[in-house]
Amino acid sequence: MEITSITIRKMGSEGKMKAIVSVTFDDSFVVHDIKVIEGNNGYFIAMPSRKTQDGEFKDIVHPINSEFREKLSGEVMRKYYEALEQAEQHQMEVAAEN
Predict the structure, then answer these.
(1) Predicted confidence band at 28 (pLDDT cuts at 50, 70, 90)?
(2) I need a surface site. Which of 3, 45, 78, 95 has the fewest CB within 10 A?
(3) Strand pairing category for 57-59 and 3-11
(4) Positive or negative CA dihedral for 23, 47, 10, 87?
(5) Residue 62 sits in which domain range?
(6) What are the residues facing 58 on neighbouring strands?
(7) E strands, the chain, in order
(8) How confident is the model at residue 98 (pLDDT cuts 50, 70, 90)?
(9) In what order do the strands lie in the sheet with 42-46?
(10) How many domains does the chain have?
């Protein structure tokens, strides 16, 4: 299974959630609402989840082996850092115009 597209759908600077991401696999299957979270030990991704009746959160979808989890996480974080860099460049361009 190949990751064919990663879209940063929303970025924020407040709070621990830094971005919401959609990932497309094999140009055939998409997973929405993967979150980039800033934790105590750095950034990580959180898979889409829902709250159960007893108040716990359970992943709706998730990688089933560590190799694919690392690949997915690495690709999502690479795209997130690219989007951050582009946003910073845009802000610098706007500031230079003013």
Answers:
(1) very high
(2) 95
(3) unpaired
(4) negative
(5) 3-97
(6) 50
(7) 3-11, 17-25, 29-39, 42-46, 49-51, 57-59
(8) low
(9) 3-11, 17-25, 29-39, 42-46
(10) 1
